[in-house]
Amino acid sequence: MDTLLSLPNGASPALSHFSDVSRASTPTRLDDVSHEKSSVTSSQVPNPRQPFRWNILHALSTRIYPPSSSKPSAVLGLSTSLPTAIVANGLLCVGKTDGMTHVFDFRQHLRCTCGNETSGTSTGAVTALALSHDHTFLAVGHAQGHIYLYDLARHQVPARTVPPTTMSAVASGKKEGHLAGSSITHLSFIGARHTALVSADKSGLAFYHSLGKVLFIEASDVLRILGRYPDEIHATAARHTSGATTPVIRSRSTILSMSALPLGPAAHPTEAYNLIAILTPVKLIVVGLRPSPRTWFRHHRDVDSSEKNPSLYAGCLAWFPSFADSKHTEGRTLQERPQASSRPVLAYSWGNTVILMRVDEIGKVTFEQVGNWSADGDIVAIIWLNQMQLLVFTSEGVDVIDVQKMISIERTAIPSEYVIANRWAPDPQAAISTPSHLRAGSLLTWTDHILMFIKQGDFLSAIDLCRSYLTGEATGNKAGLPEDADTLRQVVGQKMSELMVASASFAFSEDRMHDSTHDAPDGRGVDRTWLFEKMVSTCAEACLTLGDNDFLFNDLYERYQDMGIDGIYLAQLEPFVLDGRIRTIPPHISQRLIAVHEENEQYGRAEALIWHIDPLSLDINQAIHLCRDQQLCDALVYVYTNCLKDYVTPIVDLLLLIHEIRLLQAGGTYQFNVSHMDLETMMTHAYKVYAYLGDVLTGVEYPSNGQMDEDDATNAKRMVYAFLFFGRTSPGESGHLVVTVDDDGLEISYPYLRMLLSFDAEAFLHTLDLAFEDSYLNDDGQGVNRQLIINVLLDIAHLHDLQPEDATFVRIFIARNAPKYPQFVRVTPSTYDRLLLELASDPDVGTREDRQLASEYLLSAYTPHDGDRLVDVFERAGFYRILRSIYSQERKWLSLLSTYLRDEDLPREELFASLDKTIIRTAKACNGVLPDELRQMILESIPRLLHSSIYETAVLVDNHLQSDHARVLEAMPPRSYQQFAYLRYLLEPNLLEGIDDDHIPRKRRLEHVDSTARHLYVELLCEYDAGGIIRAINALPSGFLNLQEIIQTCNERGLYDIEIWSLNREGRPSKALDRLEVVMAQQANALADLAESGPEELENGIQVDKYVSQLRATTAMGLRICQERGQHPSTAGLHIEEMWFRLLYSEVNIVQLVSTAISPKAASIGNIPEENHSSLLESLRALVQETLVKLISTPTSRSTSLSFPALFARLVDSVSATHHASTYSEFRTILTGMLSHYRSEADTLGIVGQLVGQDLFSAVEEKTRYRRRGWPAKAGNCDFCGRPLHPPEPKTRAGTMQASIANGHANGAAAPVDEPGRGPDDVVIGLGGLVYHKRCFEVLRRNTPH
């Protein structure tokens, strides 16, 4: 049985192994627990989705737990000792603090008590227990290091005793064993022997004990398996410390878990090796005792954490032995066991990860890792439920793991104070204790989950659970479910059917309908509608899963009908019908289902139901009557086609509707019963005829879009084709005669076909286009084939009563489809010629593309005899694509070029590429000279080309018409942006926006641009990109642009900064500043005059912006001169301070002039608001502030040659003297604004600094984390020998570098990484990413000079 245990001070213990079907067992230690109170509560009705059912063992609990009061205990002589260890497997054995062990059966009867209080005083509390595989012997380990072996048939005296030894005896070599005071932590029987044990203690020592007798005297053989003895000081300290208070010394040699491979129900060769698994915080060791002791497996844990980390000491293991089918193992003795069909599996965990290892024997013992799984917290115990499921316990709860998929299939919470012991048995059960009692639990099977729902009265949830088991949708544990699909369906399906019958009987029983569940305390009753609604949907889902709806439509519906609540049943059934999951319904139910919606005037829902129900389930008279009365076209079509197999009557009914529409459009009155519909509704229904024809003629059901049966599809096509192409009026099955006559009252030919064409020819021909591809038309014996259809359409196309646009669509259809099927369709050449002429002669521009495409189809299969005449027709029709094909074949390059230029629909990329290609071909045909006609043709089309793309036009002209740039520019509007973009592409193409790098010419051919075009480019630069004039002068070759003409042009447009820049460029900065002062003075006077002219002129934003913009450009040029000359004072010709002074003086002078011009007028008039001129002054002051900021930030301002205070004082004095007024207030305003600007920038920089700092920290932290991951190997093979690698877990890059430096490999050569390997295939990873086998690296290092 799977055992869980908790004591009053329950904390998670260090765990030993579980026992398998061999029924060997190992105890749980309960002495290392914290003092916390348990808060376990029991529930009488467990949650059906919980994996376990728990029951309190009252009789057993009263014996192992002391009473709550100490006085009654003393009077009655009851023990006050507490349980410390438990083992539950066949028997329930509980060890206690008084040193005694009580053995119970699972009926809670005391079988025996091993030990006594006298011996318990000297040996200490019980700390470990183990049961033999046959449950006849019990091994008990104590806190002082004693081990006793009891024969449960003679339990009064131990059958064998293993006393502790002393350090002196060990040192003398006389004796091996556990030291006195070292408590036993793990015990396990080996194989089938009763006297062969393995044990481990707290100090990390593990021993094998062979407890024999020689001449009735005990002669035990002890072999140390693992661990080292402590030194004399620690041994002395241990001897003087009582076992109950011996501190737990945790180290990396602590044994976290130990277990011997138990015997399984089937024999396996690995059992002969007596394997023992031992788990420590840093390694897993599997030792074999036979034929001679040796280590078969060793795996080291990659431990980088501190020893104080509690996860380091979280570890446990559990074996699952070999097994075979139960039918081969039942009733067999140990010697009669069959050969196993599986291999033993070892599950072990470190921290939060559990790993599975499969063990096999092929000449030697082999181990293979088969999976792993990680929990949310540290794992404290693992228990095998069966070969497919593993329980994993953490402090948060327990997970049931599917070992094949290595996923958690169920999770449940268990209080953290429970202590878990690893146990396993064929009947998965568990025991758990709380502060006052012990609980026994069992893993719930699928039937248990269902029964729990039933006990709670929730039949519907039980049915849903059964259905989920059948469909495989059920989550969680599925213990007990048959694996065979047929058996599963039989067993679970029968259970689900019984549950449906029981739930209906319970819900509709007389007692149930009148019991207290339908009564409310206030006497109003309780609404149970939800219960009856849920029952229908639940039973419907269940019946669909079973594939049998008899219960749903017979028993269940009758119950609802008898109780008068069949409306609930029908409402819940309807979604299943509309989803298509239920189509076959008894006619009386379908009749009632449709009638309900008819009574409620929900005709749309009734229509949807009709065409979702199987035809054989419908009441046809009811459906037809409803559909005709309410014009439910889709449902009516479904009834006729699927119930009556009549595919013509739906067309007749819809043609009647078209006839009514045409009468109404002509001003007539209704002839049939459609007066309740408006014209828009009638049009919507009438257009359904085309959808219906498209489906029927392609073998698709309407309106469900399902595929028709082959025979039905053939019959439907035959009937519809015969009706459409019969040639005269025909009555339908409904008896209505759709009469189609001309104006003289004479019947017309093909009336229905022409009616469909006249209503919407394009829609009908699209339908016929789809049907034309159907193989049904291949058979001439069907009566209607492609040839007949083409012939009929040709006849109709030439009738005068057909509208021209309809006739055009018919011709397009014939031209597109007739050439596709030459083996089925024969058309005379004269007919093809006439078709081409008619398609090209149609003046409708809207259909030109469709007509051209149809003509191309026709020409692909037919070559006309009179091609020249057709070319003229195609020219008039604008069939440029066809013309290009003709002219290209005939090498008529001029005509071909003309088609490209005239085709307005040609994409831009194709247009210019085709023009370029055609021009090249033409030049090649004319010995490299372009004909004048071609040149003239292109020049006349320049507006059309410019509209498509200016830069593509520039490329085309520059490549082929280099001398005609002037004519191209003349074709554009004067001084337009088109001219600017055209010239910019020729001179500075890299500056144009929206042009890919591939379209930028690698080499500019500037010689093609004459002087007039160059001058025009400068003028356009002044208008569209004034800031780019200097860049153009520098970028273009020297002398390409006339600098004096540029200066003159710029001055005429107020761009004086170009002249100032030119003077400075010539090495005359003083002249440049002189010109700057003159320009700024002129601009200042202009602004002053504008300000004095009154608010009307001042509000003229265009003039103000113009002058301010000119001032800003001039000031920027002055700043540029001061900064450039300041870096090279020797070239300035002026003192640096003088240059800055002149610039600042000119700027402040402007502010003073404008301020003086504005203020007196404002004072005298008194009605000019300040906001009219404040923005102007702020703009001018901003220029001064910007200059001062540049001055302060310039390196020359901190040199001895430039003193900012002296400069500022000189500036104030000069301005005051010039304007004869105090200017301190003006300077104060300027400086205050500048300081505010600095404060704003400081705040912004502070915020940006914090954001950047945070981002930088995160980026560095992430890079550091990546760097610590290490350098992976470049390949999975050794870089020396080329054979595959089996590398261990990679070390961090930091660790690899440290190892490299420590071994003297600082130059980047490969250094060995100290990792545990797997025999000869240890791996070495170098800093360069190269990876070697360790032995290969040693060879390489010896052969490589350092």
Automatic annotation (TrEMBL):
SUPFAM superfamilies: WD40 repeat-like. Residues 1104-1267 form the VPS8-like TPR-like repeats domain. Residues 568-772 form the Vacuolar protein sorting-associated protein 8 central domain. It comes from the Eukaryota. GO terms for biological process: endosomal vesicle fusion; protein targeting to vacuole. GO terms for cellular component: HOPS complex; late endosome. InterPro entries: TPR_VPS8_2 (IPR059070), Vps41/Vps8 (IPR045111), Vps8_central_dom (IPR025941), WD40/YVTN_repeat-like_dom_sf (IPR015943), WD40_repeat_dom_sf (IPR036322). It holds the Pfam family Beta-prop_VPS8. Residues 26-47 are annotated as: Disordered. Residues 29-38 have a biased composition (Basic and acidic residues). Belongs to the VPS8 family. PANTHER family: VACUOLAR PROTEIN SORTING VPS41, VACUOLAR PROTEIN SORTING-ASSOCIATED PROTEIN 8 HOMOLOG. This is Uncharacterized protein.
